[in-house]
Amino acid sequence: MKGKKTSGPSILAASSPGAVISNGTVSLGLYGESHLTFNNVGLAFGGNDSLTPGCYCEGWGVADTISGVTGYANESTDGGVQNMTMVSFGSTASTANSVVRIGSTFQVTHNWHPSATPNLYEATVGITNISGAPVDAVYRRVMDWDIAPSYFYEYVTIQGTTDVIKSNNNGFNTANPLVDYGSLGATGQFTDYGPTDQGAMIDFRIGTLAPGQSKQFRIYYGAANTEANALSALTTVGAQVYSLGQPNGGQTTGAPNTYIFGYARSCQPGLAFASPLSTTSAYTMPRAATIDIRFTYAGSNNCALDDSVTLVVRDAANARTRYVAHVLHRDLEYDPMTMEYHVLFSPATYGVPANTTARADVYFGGTRVGYALINVTP
User: Fold this and answer.
1) DSSP labels, 2-68
2) Is the pTM of this model over 0.90?
3) CB 343 within 8 A of CB 311
4) What is the chain's mean pLDDT, rounded?
5) Please, are residues 164 and 157 in contact by the beta-carbon 8 Å criterion?
6) Which tens digit of pLDDT belongs to each residue from 225-284?
7) Could you give the CA distance from residue 31 to residue 37 in angstroms, rounded to a whole number?
8) Bridge-partner residues for 11, per DSSP?
9) How far is CA 35 from CA 41, 219, 221, in A?
10) 3-state DSSP call for residue 77?
11) Euclidean distance between CA atoms 195 and 77, whole angstroms
12) Within 13 Å of residue 172, how many CA atoms lie on the same side as its CB?
């Protein structure tokens, strides 16, 4: 499996020179495009490297599922850089900043810097739609874990579902988000699968981006001397998805080294209903009437709305009776220019009885983020 290749798009280029950066505990070898294994350093901790033994199989890619435009970088699996152009790269002893373009569709920034814990390096990733049409963006990160002292015979864990489209243990997968070679026996969430020569591939839903719109998130690479310390580091930075690579015999304790990849949604979203609904007071309307439920879901760094947003109308008395579920797939519309969802709502049409109070719940990624109350009169 080492170094399996994909045909990829037509534009192939050598990877740009990069840098080795360190916070004194963890070291990363970054090519200019922000895939790892530069200068024979991938992810180093305590004298061992978890990514360079065997093959240089670590990489990332971004694709638009609408147009099929994709760009990605992985030294061994994909032969370097595919349909990706360097805009700029700069580094210090402990930081690095990479900006690339994928065709004329995406501009992607990876800003690498020490995190709140010495066991993890953080990269703030920004993806901007530089095309003239909406895109549906996907970000992939893939890595072949090779963990000392049992190189090519490790245990792997993947946990978390936030923004995850798919995940498996095939670290030899292409970095192209539009192609999947399949798993090496484990998919979705799993714990301590192995021992075998494997890694992790995770596709993240970035969502719909209007022309000129951007979205940010955070990724992490690092290591710790025990599993407990690795999980503590992930908690410190608020990671919602992670993979662990551990040696044979160390799958329970994580000793002598547990290597880490993590992901966290960066945006801190807020919810706002447009008049006549609000999150602070109930709105009263006749059962046969119709209102336009409008709401925005955006935060301090312009969180993008995507297809994980749903609206559910249910009985407010016990929150058990659902009148409308997953409206998005039927009636809920999204305006990418105003970042606003709206739906024409009639209690009669959606089966809400008179003389009741309904609750309009907004969910993002399966988590309720707010609601509005509607008093229904005869």
Assistant:
1) TT------S-EEPPPP-EEEE-SSEEEEE-TTS-B-BTTBSEEETTEESSSSS---EEEEEEETTT-
2) no
3) yes
4) 89
5) no
6) 999 999 999 999 989 999 999 999 999 999 999 999 999 986 556 688 889 999 889 999
7) 7
8) none
9) 11, 12, 12
10) helix
11) 22
12) 16
What is the b/e burial string over 276-296, where b = at least 16 CB atoms within 10 angstroms of the residue's CB? ebeeeeebebebeeebebbbb
37 φ/ψ sector (left φ>0, alpha ψ -120 to 50, else beta): left
User: Residue 70: what residue type?
Assistant: T
Amino acid at the residue 89? F
What's the rounded Cα separation, in Å, for the pair 172 and 180? 10
d(CA 55, CA 311): 46
**Amino acid found at 183:** S
pLDDT digits (tens, 9 = 90+) for 174-225: 999 999 999 999 999 999 999 999 999 999 999 888 898 888 899 999 999 9
Residue 111 tokens, joined:
């800003």
Cβ neighbourhood burial of 73 (10 Å; 0-12, 13-18, 19+): buried
With b meaning 16 or more CB within 10 Å and e meaning fewer, what string describes 130-161?
bbeebbbbbbbbbbbbbbbebbbbbbbbbbbe
Residue 300 CA to residue 336 CA, distance in Å, equals 17
